[in-house]
Protein: Transketolase
Organism: Linderina macrospora
Amino acid sequence: HGMAAIANGIAAYGANIPFASTFLNFISYAAGATRLSALSNLRVLYIMTHDSIGLGEDGPTHQPIETFAMLRATPNYLNFRPADGNEVSGAYYSAITHSTRPSVLSLTRQNLPHLEGSSIENTLKGGYHLKTYGSGAKPDLLIVATGSEVSIAVDSAKLLAEKNGLTVKVVSMPCLELFNEQPEAYRHEVLTPGVPSISVEALSTFGWHKYVHRPIGIDTFGASGPYQQLYEKFGLVPETIAAKALKVVDYYKTNPVPTLDLDF
């Protein structure tokens, strides 16, 4: 709390752009001060690491679940979960150029691959079409993911395309707040109305029903163990995601695909 409050003072004075950094889960300890960053229109960068169960052996006391839902519910915040180096660069650029808003850059502990289709420019839109896998003219499924789960979503899409013949559109959503501010036509283009959709994020599913038909995430506390085992335990691996996705696709073959309210 003291660290974030000092950063607020530095930002209010105006000579420097301050940043504060700790594990993402512990931004909750600073919530009073970080809320004032947003309320006071202060450009403070919160560089948060160890942003999910990927932190592993430190266990559930250190693994954020509800934290990002709280941050996303706070007005005047920009909350980023970048998926690769391009998205990290885009997040920093956005955080520095938004002079009246604090930003949270939520970064992983584990290494992540560079993603085909990512870019700084796309990141500045908050969400974008990363790539489509399969040969169909129209997607059978939309997978929306953030941060470290985008590469898992890509592997899930490849699996569904190769084994089940589906055409799967993958959307990376590094910053919901920036995406919400894009023109209506762009939001509809990215999220493709009429197509069954799921989200994949190693955090609470709270809030995702606004964007997708079936959110996949973690609505319990985490656990202690190697992060690979934890991702498997909580069903955030391509095989499990693909199996859940197939159920969603099959359900909407005989039921109308609900229209989501994208007119934010």
Remarks:
- The longest helix spans residues 149-164.
